[in-house]
Specification:
- This protein has helices at residues 48-55, 78-81, 100-110, 116-125, 141-153, 171-186, 227-231, and strands spanning 8-19, 22-33, 37-41, 63-68, 71-72, 85-88, 159-163, 190-194, 207-212, 215-220.
- It is α/β, with parallel strands linked by helices.
- Strand 1 and strand 2 (22-33) form a beta hairpin.
- Helix 3 packs across helix 4 (116-125) and helix 4 packs across helix 5.
- The chain is globular, with a radius of gyration of 18 Å.
């Protein structure tokens, strides 16, 4: 873990997100410092993915406030910081008919990146071969996950939001991904990882953030469910 962290880069105040009559987030308030790796944990339906998508600007809050890098979600200045956030969804969001390099070249143009060297760099960083001409549709699920991570890293974001990045990834490859995330954090980036494979992040995560029923119920330095959850019967 790193001990060097900067001031808060994300502040969440009484965040509520409803889908119809169902409240996926119920009054979440939290502050997160820069240069840390946060593991977001909880059972299915706890609100983890909804929180991540809301931070990414993909869900509009029903009420409450989010400030990211000094800009408030929904403000005129928020669009200016979107390019400093990388997001990896649970689906890969890749084009099956294209190779990995072709996929990244497409996304690079959206970010104004014209050099193919950056695409090759992030493909190699996740343990794949930029020369592989096979369409992504023929990749294994683990390879797709790693390519999706490469896409999220492409624009060298200050904040990285990852939803189940280790899903269907073999143990050795997952370990390589964790080491890459640790190096990225050590370079000053702030990383949020939603995962059901929390043990992979032991020794790498700076903080484990526990969610239940749309709320953050505790934050721990070790992989141990907070006692408050047990006391409340959650």
């Amino acid at each position: 873990m790193t001990e060097t962290a900067t001031a808060n880069v994300i502040t969440i105040t009484n965040l509520i997100k409803q889908f119809g009559r169902f409240a996926a987030l119920r009054g979440v308030s939290a502050e997160f410092s820069g240069g840390k790796l946060y593991a977001i944990l909880g059972d299915n339906g706890a609100g983890k993915t909804t929180l991540l998508r809301t931070l990414a600007g993909l869900n509009r809050p029903s009420s409450g406030r989010i400030s990211i890098l000094g800009s408030e979600l929904g403000s005129d200045t928020f669009r200016d910081i979107c390019g400093q956030v990388g997001y990896m969804a649970h689906p890969s969001l890749l084009y099956d008919e294209m190779s990995g390099m072709e996929n990244l070249a497409y996304f690079a143009r959206l970010y104004g990146i014209t050099s193919g060297a950056r695409c090759a760099e992030v493909i190699q960083a996740v343990g794949l071969d930029p020369e592989l001409a096979r369409p992504v549709g023929q990749y294994s699920q683990g390879m797709r996950q790693r390519m999706s991570l490469a896409r999220a890293l492409l624009n060298d974001p200050k904040i990285l939001l990852l939803d189940e990045p280790f899903s269907n990834v073999d143990l050795n490859s997952a370990g390589e991904m964790v080491r890459l995330l640790a190096r990225t954090r050590d370079a000053g980036k702030t990383i949020f990882v939603v995962t059901h494979q929390a043990a992979l992040l032991e020794g790498a995560a700076d903080e484990f953030v526990w969610m239940e029923f749309g709320k953050i119920i505790g934050r721990t330095r070790e992989l141990k469910r907070p006692a408050v959850a047990e006391e409340n019967g959650l």
